[in-house]
# Entry
Amino acid sequence: MLTRTMVIWCPDWPVRAVIHLEGMPPTAPVAVFAKSKVFACSASARAEGVCRGMRMRDAQARCPELCVFDYDETLDARAFEPVLEAVEVLSPGVQLIRPGTCAVRAKGPSRFYGGERQAAAVLAERLVALGVDDCRIGVADGPFAAEQAARRAEQQDSFVIDKDGSAAFLHDIPIGVLDRPELVSLLLRLGLRTLGALAALAARDVVTRFGDEGAWAHRMATGRDERAVVARRAPPELVRHADFEPPLEQVDPIAFSMRSTAEAFVSALAHEGLVCTAVRIEVRTDDGCESGRTWLHPRWFDPHDLIDRIRWQLQGSPGPASGASAPVSQVRLVPEEVDLLGNHADGLWGGAPDERIHRALSRVQGMVGHEGVISAVLGGGRGTAERQTAVPWGDQLVPAKAPELPWPGSLPAPAPSTVYADPRPAVVVGVGGQPVGVTGRGVLTTEPARFCPTGGDELQPVQAWAGPWPVDERWWDPEQSRRYARFQMVGVDGSAWLLAVENGTWWTEARYD
Amino acid sequence: MTPTASLVRQAQDLQGRIRQAEGVGLASTTLETLPAFAGCLPGGALRTGAAYSVSGSTHLAMALLAGPSAAGAWCGVAGVPTFGAEAAAATGVDLSRTILVPDLGDQWTAVLAALIDVLAVIVVRPPLPVAGADAARLGARLRQRGATLVCLGEWPRSEAQLAVTDSDWLGLGAGHGHLLARRVTVTASSRAGGGRRVQLWLPGPDQRVRAVGADDSGRYGGRQHHGGGELHRSKAS
# Structure
């Protein structure tokens, strides 16, 4: 049973999506690259000789002013969503084939609008009004033939293959349109260059020689594509937002007004059998600025947690009293990661002990702020402070620097028990009171005799010391490069310190106490 | 003596007796503690519901934390922004079950009370001198929840006060070597009276905290400036 199908095709969709996102003129030469080969390019780039599958260097040689972007599948799909919605308005039951191409059943619209051409014209008009000026529509028996027909259509026009005319239409089309590169390459080598040549073979022979894939290709080539148009199920709307009119300045009223929104957000997810484990909170202010931040949760968000995150986000960002730069007019809650509710259900005898801890720590976070309760993760690095990363409770435990790298110049064990995040000034002098320094070649100017690790005037004699241990970090990067030398020193009172000198300035990095 | 003064005296006397009665907690149990502390803590180990004060060494507090943490207890470090996590991990603290609250803020007693509710052992450095009333309230909470507090600094009426009174680093010479190990003398005085004095490796040459044994004196004896040399010799031989 063949389905009369209408395929709507928007050429170069990845390019169009990027142009729309970047706000570039539609005539700009743009190419989108996947795996460093041209995935799609704009008409102006094609006019310069850029084509699909070309390497980046070749493409840029042909068209030096080419704007290069990475292919982003999600952006593609997101940009196509309004098109799908527009088509859905005119004809329910749209099937997304891939971003840029969708199919609808032709029967309903053609009856309603008085013919397939008329229906296609209405659709095209609608899409042009949406800003999609290049859309082509094909109508034929089955989605495959309809898509080929759409490729034959003119811009904003339609190409209709009459009923039972698909096989004749497909006869002269090159076999490369089949989306099976290995099979196509084999068929070409066997001398089958068009769909018509493949269709001329007996179906049984094709199956015995090429298996299921060959049978599929034969069905397509003979115009017996019996796939039906499967209407997509519109995804449930899980994003919730609250508008404030007039805009609010203080954090407390915003948090209070968001309570019902947060509850609706959580219950809408629960209705789908889902819980949210990562949420993005987007705040729009009165002056049009938008800011967003993603929050993770070790378990899942309940309404109270969401209110806490909103509070922290508004308090955390710099600016006047409310935290935001201007009065807040809208707050949106976007679920970034959801999980099945069943994976997070409480056990029959209550939850794990970790859950109790989590609740209490969330309360502490409410008192001292999100960054006030942290877990420490050990990482790599040369400085003692950079070897430990503070991760707010609930976030992923990822060290800032990889611990498995060798890190030459890092200190041997034992590690200092007191690490100053902000180095404190120190004083180190030689026997005659002259300052101690390290030359560019790493040679000590004079032996340290007395020092004060707290930067005061009360110098104490050095009992034992070792150094200098030079650290030369990122010398190739003028902004982040650092050169300093480190010393371990023990004073006569038995206290041990880790000191460092950079450009003649001493500071205390850590204490072994 | 005026009648008021005698009343005050009587009230203080009663309070003292109440405190003494509180100290003898029947429900109090001991926590897994590093064997190094067997000789200096009253009862040989950390007790639940008790507060200890530690002075002179962060590493000593880490070592107290290490035993319960390695045994699977959730621990916390509050008010210590300079906490050296790497040293703590080397001592035996499980960082994945350790919560840090670097800045306790204005309402430090409220934050500490919330931590006491769920954590087994908490190391705290109070931002202000601890008032007797606060200590009594938090002490009651500790006993109720069965938690243990290790205070870096003074804590009124603590179960025991541990202080590093002598510290002797090994491995560092005059311009050579590097810090390897430290022998400390820990002086412990318990509330019941009586002081003890033990020698510990804090940390030892193997990064572990343990009591200085009889066999150590021959290998790593002496002061640090020449002690380092001896250590190098012993490693080379």
About this structure: Chain B has two domains: 27-160, 162-236. The beta strands of chain B are 51-55, 75-78, 98-101, 121-124, 148-152, 160-172, 177-190, 195-201, 210-211. Confidence is low (pLDDT under 50) at residues 221-237 of chain B.
